[in-house]
Write a structure and sequence with these properties.
The protein has helices at about 50-65, 80-90, 105-115, 125-140, 155-170, 185-200, 245-260, 265-280, and strands at about 15, 35-40, 70-75, 95-100, 115-120, 145, 180, 205-210, 240-245, 285-290. By secondary structure, the protein is of the alpha/beta class. The termini are far apart.
Length: about 300
């Protein structure tokens, strides 16, 4: 019998096909490479962040740094926090999380339902502000907290090196030619890209950026204007591409209405960028991206009704 954390990983790889009706040339599927995406919303916590949270917490237990008398503390934009809260509840640990006050109401509710304590931070300071507040509290009371520090913990990218990257390689039977995705901490991108490039150095890794520091793609970073994680390795990036908030919103709506795939905004941005890239490639190439989380935690966002 599997426990809840044993269900993390081994997510399906699904082909992305969007009809051309009402679509721009950049985002409609036509001639070009095939596009696939890792459906990370199949993880029990509903996002790809389950992978890193599991790796960091189990490593803490193994090392003796996380004991039953300590509370798990970290900063989050939502998804990693949900994973901490889920795993903490399953393993019997208290969890306190610092997140920007403008995180979606659904994310706050999920955290609360798992029993986590929430400290809301200045929304104008974004995830960087939450990180600095959590770090300060953890350093002030080291005897009280276990601080996995998702922005600097090597277990974060390692979870994707061992898991996500290897799974993509196996699921495409080694046919993947391009990996393209956005970054929050960068754990997914760096760990996955490193594993794929070791398996085939010819694989192109493309980092997707919001087109402005002030964007509406929750959970990701505009890397040129924010703090970078300690493990973020720009040498793994072959090039950057930009996606606007409006393009991300539109692609997210289209995935739900035209493909039956109900996901969050960063997933929409990833798919928009992947489909745009695919149109520049040949039919014998394969693009893989990430569907980071499910759309339920964005259900109240106004962008769903925009046109």
């Amino acid at each position: 019998m599997a426990g809840i954390i044993d269900l993390i990983g081994d997510t399906p790889l699904i082909e992305i096909k969007l009809g051309a009706s009402g679509a721009s040339a950049a985002s409609s599927a036509s001639a070009g490479a095939r596009v696939f995406a890792k459906a990370e919303f199949f993880n029990p916590g509903g996002s790809i962040k389950d992978r890193a949270a599991k790796a960091m917490l189990l490593d803490g237990i193994k090392s003796g740094a996380l004991t039953k008398d300590k509370t798990i503390i970290d900063a989050t934009s939502g998804n990693t926090g949900i994973a901490y809260a889920m795993i903490g509840a399953a393993l019997g640990f208290k969890v306190v999380l610092y997140l920007p006050a403008n995180a979606s109401q659904e994310r706050k509710a999920i955290l609360s339902h798992y029993g986590a304590a929430i400290v809301q931070t200045d929304p104008l300071a974004s995830s960087d502000g939450a990180f600095l507040r959590a770090k300060e509290e953890a350093e002030k009371y080291p005897e009280k907290y276990f601080y996995p520090n998702q922005y600097h913990n090597p277990q974060n990218p390692l979870a994707h090196y061992n898991g996500t990257g290897a799974e993509i390689w196996n699921q495409t039977k080694g046919q993947v030619t391009h990996f393209i995705a956005m970054s929050g901490t960068g754990g997914t991108f760096c760990g996955t890209a490193k594993r794929l490039k070791e398996l085939n150095p010819k694989i192109t890794a493309i980092n997707v950026q919001p087109d402005s520091p002030f964007h509406g793609v929750e959970g990701v970073k505009h890397l040129r204007s924010t703090l970078k994680s300690g493990f973020f390795d720009e040498t793994l990036i072959d090039r950057f591409v930009e996606v606007s908030t409006e393009e991300a919103y539109a692609a997210t709506r289209r995935l739900a209405k035209e493909a039956g795939i109900y996901v969050g905004i960063s997933s929409g941005a990833n798919v928009f960028a992947a489909l745009r890239l695919a149109k520049t490639l040949s039919a014998d190439e394969t693009v893989v991206t990430i569907l980071s989380d499910n759309g339920l935690r964005y259900a109240s966002d106004s962008f769903w009704s925009e046109r």
